[in-house]
Specification:
- With 352 residues, the chain is of the alpha/beta class.
- The protein is built from eight helices and 20 strands.
- Strands 1, 4, 5, 6, 7 and 10 form a six-stranded parallel β-sheet that branches.
- A hairpin with a 6-residue loop joins strand 15 and strand 16.
- Helix 6 packs parallel to helix 7.
- It is globular.
- The two termini are 22 Å apart.
Length: 352
């Protein structure tokens, strides 16, 4: 199974993530001294010490440093079994570890550390790949499922581009994964991870109809109680961009709360590309005029043109079409105390 699209996602996202952190003017503060909601920062890992796959790998020395940095900063590792309560807990800094795909390198390298220190996490597995070369076995997955600080999440059966399939094909794939989960570990998860982080309104609807309560993409941002539970953001971490200083900066992100983003449909085609993007924020965000947004239309990252429709509503004017597989818009608002409000939007371009 090729992960070139994943490499594209992680590389492009992290370039713009840290470009915004570096280039945002020091004077562009929202001037909020008291943080009302730290939210939950979800981190996404894949491979551990598989150094021939740098775009989806993290070196163990860096992973251990990440865990230590989180602990040193008194950031709480949240237990996925208490997920909704932790979202409501707004006063603590919190991190949710997620690991996608169930590679053997997770079991061999990261699991012993997480097990010893009882650090909570979600492991998302695609049922078709279990037991194949380079992937965990069901006995290993069952071992992990028995501890109370870990959770096995559903990542589909095939890990194919579900978003390009028919609704009937999607339902068949996900239903099969659910049946296998029930057979192998006794129950299906209420957590789902979209393959490649891609979702559409139809895919979201099917995920909900099949009983999932939470679904994660790969658009950047911080989870809070205003977010759609079937469009939860995560920050991808890989070998190059797991660099320590950058990781510390990522941990300074905060929820950027919005009422709505138009269009609702993030799966676009020739007739809807480029989309006209309108974001309506909540009224209590101070100095919203200092917002910075970047976008990658025409495969060129640039400052997005922003028009304020009113005090809490902006229109993002894209300079052209998204021409890569995924279009991205990332917006940030710097706080006076060194934190950033962060909002990422991902569009997926339909196959012609």
């Amino acid at each position: 199974m090729s992960f070139c699209p994943m490499q594209f996602i992680i590389k492009k996202f992290l370039i713009i993530l840290f470009t915004i952190f570096i280039l945002t003017p020091q004077s562009s503060y929202s001037k909020v001294n008291k943080i009302d909601d730290y939210g939950v920062i979800a981190l996404m890992y894949h491979r551990f010490e598989e150094n021939k796959y740098p775009s989806t790998n993290i070196r163990m020395k860096d992973f251990i440093s990440h865990l230590n940095i989180i602990k040193e900063n008194n950031i709480k590792f949240i237990n996925p079994n208490n997920f909704i309560n932790e979202i409501q807990n707004k006063k603590e800094r919190k991190v949710l570890l997620t690991i996608d795909d169930g590679f053997s390198s997770f079991y061999e390298n990261a699991w012993p550390i997480l097990k010893k220190e009882k650090i909570p996490f979600i492991l998302f597995v695609s049922t078709r790949e279990v037991g194949k070369n380079g992937y965990m076995s069901w006995s290993q997955i069952k071992e992990i499922s028995k501890v109370d600080f870990a959770h096995i999440g559903n990542h589909s059966h095939t890990h194919e581009y579900l978003i390009d399939q028919t609704n009937e094909e999607i339902k068949k794939d996900l239903t099969l994964s659910i049946d296998i989960f029930k057979e192998k570990i006794g129950t299906n998860s209420h957590f789902f991870s979209y393959p490649f982080g891609e979702y559409s309104l139809d895919l979201k609807k099917i995920v909900k109809e099949l009983g999932f309560d939470y679904a994660f993409g790969q658009h950047s941002g911080v989870i809070d109680d205003t977010k759609d539970t079937l469009e939860l953001p995560r920050f991808p971490i890989n070998e190059k961009y797991g660099e320590i200083n950058r990781f510390k900066t990522l941990l300074k992100t905060l929820p950027f709360k919005f009422k709505s983003i138009i269009p609702l449909e993030k799966y676009i085609n020739d007739s809807t590309n480029p989309p006209e993007v309108k974001i309506t924020f909540f009224e209590n965000i101070n100095n919203l005029k200092l917002i910075n947004c970047f976008s990658n239309e025409e495969d060129k990252w640039r400052n997005s043109k922003i028009e304020f429709l009113n005090q809490n509503e902006i229109l993002i004017k894209l300079a052209g079409k998204f021409i890569t597989e995924r279009g991205r818009i990332n917006c940030s608002l710097r706080e006076e105390n060194g934190f950033y409000r962060w909002l990422g939007i991902q569009f997926v371009i339909a196959e012609k």
